[in-house]
Design brief:
The chain has 353 residues and is mostly helical. Helix 3 packs across helix 4 and helix 11 runs antiparallel to helix 12. It has 2 domains: 51 residues; 279 residues, no CATH class.
Length: 353
């Protein structure tokens, strides 16, 4: 936590303490009721500020080793990626304030940055869990699905905003438990039923999903200033058709109240991807070295890490492209677009013989 945030939190805490002391001593600067209301408001503001702090990054190898058997000298293939996914989900559920997206009480009711950040992380976890179930854990299309991953993948696709009957946290915890059971079996040398196949085609299939997610986020971020785009939906295939006719040019603009939502969703997605890609670097090391693709992967990670820089402005600014004020969405879109281009290059390398 940087000094500026610490000073702000300390200032809010001191103001709250002063008001509580005044109320205790029957000194009511705004009247008895007004002072109590202001004290509660400042306390909720302090809590909301603290809960809105984004989690720090972590070392994927340390996490994998912490979840491996003490007797194991080497990490089993797939352990780092699976342990990283488990820790991402654990962070989502157990960070300060817990999981916020389904809260219906103050101060979370007034917050939207961290819930959107959570959604970005969640989407990446869902994509990875799907690939884990359908690709990484299976040797071929006719092979049997892993029994625990059959549970984990749909549990992570449960409604992200259900607060009761049942609460989202309970469903995601069941998915987390299933992933942990898979990891335990994966690390057992005497249990050949749990497998993780580090193959170039499996990695390429997951990166195809990453590519589509990053492409969508880049487009949504760029639409913060509004633009007219040529419709390229059917480009590249003269025989292609679509169900409903659309205009040749489309006016695209993100609603003003959704600009910060897209920004923080992107930060969450990038944060999750940084760790998943670092885990992939460990589990697919031999494939990446054989394809001479290790540098390409590290370049993607570097571009995504740049999206995690501290936002010093109290709000997401939305200036015009070459205007007087910054446009944070366009800056974020630049990093995401470069990362997406690098993902496309990496997939091409993996598909080469």
């Amino acid at each position: 936590m940087n000094a500026a945030i610490e000073n702000t939190l300390e200032g809010l805490k001191q103001a709250t303490d002063n008001l509580l002391t005044a109320l205790k001593n029957r000194q009511y600067p705004f009247g008895k009721v007004g002072g109590a209301v202001l004290a509660v408001f400042l306390l909720l503001l302090l809590i909301g500020w603290y809960w809105s702090l984004e989690p720090d990054s972590f070392d994927v190898l340390e996490i994998a080793r912490a979840q491996s058997p003490a007797s194991s000298q080497n990490l089993a293939i797939g352990s780092t990626s699976t342990a990283t996914a488990i820790h991402l989900l654990e962070t989502l559920l157990n960070k300060p304030g817990g999981y916020l997206s389904n809260d219906v009480m103050p101060p979370t009711l007034w917050l939207d940055n961290l819930p959107n950040w959570e959604y970005g992380v969640l989407i990446q976890l869902r994509d990875f869990a799907r690939s884990l179930r359908n690709d990484f854990s299976r040797s071929q299309s006719q092979s049997v699905e892993d029994s625990d991953l059959i549970i984990a993948e749909p549990q992570l696709n449960f409604d992200s905003e259900s607060w009761i009957f049942p609460p989202t946290e309970r469903e995601y915890k069941q998915g987390q438990d299933a992933l942990k059971r898979y990891l335990v079996r994966l690390q057992d040398p005497n249990n050949p039923q749990a497998q993780f196949y580090a193959r170039a085609d499996n990695l390429s299939d997951w990166l195809r999903q990453v590519e589509k997610r990053l492409g969508s986020l880049s487009q949504r971020l760029s639409a913060s200033v509004g633009e007219t785009r040529i419709n390229t939906d059917l480009a590249g295939d003269s025989a292609a058709v679509q169900s409903t006719r659309t205009a040749h040019e489309l006016d695209i603009k993100t609603a003003w109240l959704e600009i910060d939502d897209v920004f923080y969703e992107t930060r969450g997605a990038a944060w999750a991807l940084v760790h998943l890609l670092k885990a992939v670097e460990q589990d697919f090391a031999s494939i990446l070295q054989k394809k001479n693709a290790l540098i390409s992967l590290r370049q993607i990670i570097r571009e995504l890490e740049a999206t995690q820089q501290t936002l010093w402005s109290p709000m997401v600014l939305n200036g015009s492209g070459f205007g007087l004020f910054a446009n944070h969405s366009l800056v974020m879109a630049s990093y995401i677009s470069r990362a997406n281009a690098a993902v496309i290059d990496l997939r091409q390398l993996l598909q080469q013989g």
